[in-house]
Structure formats: structure tokens, C-alpha cells
């Protein structure tokens, strides 16, 4: 049962880490709200803003000036938290691979392999918390920004909602958390 649980946790951790990486790299953290008058689809991400013309499918993207330039707090904080979550999830995945029973590394010492799985679970938990904080921080900021515009009856032409990248970051973080629970609580 331990080997099946380890492989399940590894599969979930691998998929969740990929989700976190995709969320960090993609550019649809905010999308314009559906409006029948719109002829373009706008996405804002952590690294750039893209506009897709709905009639001919042409997509143009504007890179943000610099990583070190003055950006809104939500972008800087989310970038930092998501990059740290990606690094921790990758480290946990590497540790977990070495700790799996089906890998011949340290086969003669099962206690060390079990501790490696437990350590991978702890690292995954830390990464999942950072990723979840980053994703939720961004989503709450988008919601507050939109609510402030609506409450003041300000219409700037475009209203943004959460994009699929934000949801992907939340899903990846939750998957990493579930994998960490499997590794830390259920493996013993």
C-alpha cells in the first residue's frame, strides 16, 4: 500500500507542479469580462499583456518594460510567490523521486527513503501555501479593483475577471497540498 500511495502522491505532485509552472508562465491571469460589443479578447498576466482580435485571430502582446521596473504590488508579490512555489515544488518533486520505493537509490536503507518522502511532503506543503497565497492575492485584488470601479460608477471600457492562469495556479497549489498530505500524514 505504501508504494501505491507514493506513486499516487508523485503523480499528483508532478501534475500540480506542471500546473504551477504553466500558471506562472502564461499571460491570462486577468481576462476582460464578456461583452457583446468587444471585438478583441484581452489578457493580462504576470509578464505581459496580450490582445487577440476576435475577427481574424491575430494576437499581439506587450511585454512589461522590465522585471525591476515599477509595477503594481499585485504583480510583484504574485510573481515572487509563484516563482518560489515553482522552485519548492520542483525541489520536492526531485526529493520525492529519490525517495520512491520503486527507485533503486538507497534501496538498502528504507528509513532514509521514507524520510525523503516525508521531507518532500513538507516542502510541497510550503510550496502549495505560497502558490495559493499568490493566486488568491491576485484574484482578490482583481475583485477589489472591479468592485471599486463598480461602486464608484466608473466605466473605463474594460472590466477584468479572473483568468484561467489564476485558476490554474489555484488548482496546482491545491494539488500540491493534497500530495503533501498524502506524503506526510498517510504514508506512515
From TrEMBL:
Regions that span the bilayer: 118-140, 162-187
Cellular component aspect of the GO annotation: bicellular tight junction; plasma membrane
Pfam families named in the record: PMP22_Claudin
InterPro entries (UniProt xref): Claudin, Claudin16, Claudin_CS, PMP22/EMP/MP20/Claudin
GO terms for MF: structural molecule activity
Keyword annotations of the record: Cell junction, Cell membrane, Membrane, Signal, Tight junction, Transmembrane, Transmembrane helix
Chief localisation class: other
Top-level taxon in the UniProt lineage: Eukaryota
Annotated localization: Cell junction, Tight junction; Cell membrane
Membrane topology of the entry: Multi-pass membrane protein
Function: Claudins function as major constituents of the tight junction complexes that regulate the permeability of epithelia.
Family membership noted in the UniProt record: Belongs to the claudin family.
Protein name, UniProt field: Claudin
Taxonomic source organism: Rhodinocichla rosea
Lineage: Eukaryota, Metazoa, Chordata, Craniata, Vertebrata
Amino acid at each position: 500500500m505504501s508504494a501505491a500511495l507514493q506513486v499516487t502522491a508523485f503523480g499528483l505532485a508532478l501534475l500540480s507542479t506542471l500546473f504551477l509552472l504553466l500558471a506562472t508562465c502564461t499571460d491570462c491571469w486577468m481576462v476582460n469580462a464578456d461583452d457583446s460589443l468587444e471585438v478583441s479578447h484581452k489578457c493580462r498576466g504576470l509578464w505581459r499583456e496580450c490582445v487577440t482580435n476576435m475577427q481574424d485571430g491575430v494576437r499581439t502582446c506587450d511585454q512589461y518594460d522590465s522585471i525591476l521596473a515599477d509595477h503594481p504590488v499585485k504583480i510583484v508579490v504574485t510573481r515572487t510567490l509563484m516563482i518560489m512555489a515553482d522552485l519548492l515544488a520542483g525541489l520536492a518533486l526531485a526529493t520525492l523521486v529519490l525517495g520512491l520505493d520503486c527507485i533503486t537509490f538507497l534501496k538498502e536503507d528504507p528509513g532514509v527513503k521514507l524520510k525523503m518522502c516525508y521531507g518532500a511532503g513538507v516542502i510541497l506543503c510550503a510550496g502549495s501555501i505560497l502558490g495559493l497565497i499568490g493566486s488568491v492575492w491576485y484574484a482578490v485584488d482583481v475583485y477589489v479593483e472591479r468592485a471599486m470601479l463598480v461602486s464608484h460608477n466608473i466605466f473605463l471600457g474594460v472590466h477584468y475577471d479572473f483568468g484561467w492562469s489564476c485558476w490554474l495556479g489555484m488548482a496546482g497549489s491545491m494539488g500540491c497540498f493534497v500530495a503533501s498530505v498524502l506524503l506526510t500524514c498517510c504514508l506512515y
